[in-house]
Specification:
- Pfam families: FemAB_like.
- By secondary structure, the protein is of the alpha+beta class.
- The protein has two domains: 159 residues, Aminopeptidase (3-Layer(aba) Sandwich), CATH 3.40.630.30; 166 residues, Gcn5-related N-acetyltransferase (GNAT) (Aminopeptidase), CATH 3.40.630.30.
- The strands form two sheets. It has an eleven-stranded mixed β-sheet with strand order 2-5-6-8-15-9-14-13-12-11-10.
- A hairpin with a 2-residue loop joins β3 and β4.
- α2 packs antiparallel against α9 and α7 crosses α10.
- The longest helix has 27 residues.
């Protein structure tokens, strides 16, 4: 530890000022004091739901210099980096995989800072503190492991240097034209191959033929009734997939009040009555697609509400990147391109650590091959040399 610095583990952000925390978090909406506090205070994320906050903070006197969002977890729900097979292997060998330590934004497969600190030295202290905590808890309470999900690539490499094992994944992201952005949606479509362009136009016509129109609402504009309708849609989506929803109406209402400028609620309406909704978070650079639901089936409505309306919003507001959520090879045909995402892992059991490390090396090779295949199937028109040219 650097002289003059102190590490504290906290289970609430109540004792940290919004200003001090957000200076570390920057403008990432998922790292804001308001976002975490809404998760915690509404009971969506708590020890009762299997997410016990154990945030690591780094202090120089009374000044907050660094932080690592961290949870003690007794399950693997809401993570989007799947380790159920690891947990099952532990169980079959007579070992307990839970509890584990997890650094992540709950229920949010979005890449961003996890080591909230301004210097490499401070980031190294945070990783060291998390690993030390995992090792200490392994002795005290049999914590099996420490995981960090969706860090930036540079942070992932720093964690690898500290002794963690990296895992690769793939998401599909949409990018605006690099210079100036697209003028409109047709400008974006013009960059796609003929077949992909035709398919998107057909999908949009089907929705229009159903009499559906759309409304964009910020948190400032969304009323209690809007949020109640959205939550009904959100809950229905989980029920339709035989799952329990993670978030409640209180959380969304609080988010609408505390972070109104970071929210985009897209409503699909017929005869001025809402039939579907999608919620996105954003800053000036990135739009993050998060939750969607519909009260009735309309052909093409999912793609229009979740993707095409969001792309139009990015074009209109000169937003460079749209992260459409986890997985989804179907997004490729709609102008999204594959990108590599990261996670980092440390396991206390040496034999399991070696076996999983070996597995991840082979998995990374498979990911590399899959990325090559996906890039060969780019939806964008090719130049004279046969190379895709998105956003040229």
């Amino acid at each position: 530890m650097i002289p003059g610095f102190e590490v504290k583990v906290i289970n609430s952000l109540d004792g940290i000022s919004v200003k001090a925390w957000n200076m570390l978090a920057g403008d990432d909406p998922f790292l804001q004091h308001e976002f975490f506090s809404a998760m915690h205070d509404t009971g969506c994320v708590s020890g009762k739901t299997g997410w016990l906050p154990q945030f690591i903070t780094l202090w120089e006197g009374s000044t907050l210099r660094g932080a690592l969002p961290l949870y003690l977890k007794n399950h693997s729900y809401g993570e989007y980096v799947f380790d159920w097979a690891w947990a099952d292997a532990y169980r079959r060998c007579g070992h307990a995989y839970y509890p584990k330590l997890l650094s992540a934004v709950p229920f949010s497969p979005v890449t961003g800072q996890r080591l909230l600190a301004g210097t490499a030295e401070h980031r190294a202290l945070l990783v060291s503190a998390a690993l030390r905590m995992a090792k200490d808890k392994n002795v005290e309470t049999s914590v099996s492991s420490f995981h960090c999900l969706f860090p930036r690539e540079d942070e992932a490499l720093e964690m690898e240097m500290a002794g963690m094992t990296l895992r690769h994944g793939i998401q599909f992201h949409w990018r605006n034209r690099e210079v100036g952005g697209y003028e409109d949606f047709d400008g974006f479509l013009a960059e796609l191959s003929h077949g992909k362009r035709k398919k998107i136009r057909q999908e949009r016509r089907k929705v229009h033929a159903e009499g559906i129109r759309f409304q964009w609402l910020s948190g400032y504009d969304a009323s209690h009734d809007h949020w109640r309708f959205f939550v009904n849609c959100y809950n229905k989506t989980y029920r339709d997939h035989h799952s329990m929803p993670y978030l409640n109406l209180e959380f969304f209402l609080r988010l609408g009040k505390s972070m109104p400028e970071n929210l985009l609620l897209i409503l699909a309406l017929r005869d001025d009555q809402p039939v579907a909704a999608a919620l996105n978070l954003h800053n000036s650079r990135t739009l993050y697609g998060r939750y969607w639901g519909t009260m009735e089936f309309v052909p093409g409505l999912h793609f229009e509400t979740c993707y095409y309306q969001a792309i139009e919003f990015c074009i209109a507001h000169r937003i460079a990147l749209f992260e459409g959520g986890a997985q989804g090879e179907h997004k490729l045909a709609r102008g999204f391109l594959p990108v590599r995402v990261w996670s980092a892992h440390w396991l206390a059991h040496p034999e399991f650590a070696a076996a999983i490390g070996n597995y991840l090396k082979h998995e990374a090779q498979d990911i590399n091959h899959y990325l090559d295949e996906l890039n060969e199937s780019s939806p964008f028109r090719k130049d004279k040399r046969g190379n895709p040219k998105p956003g040229s």
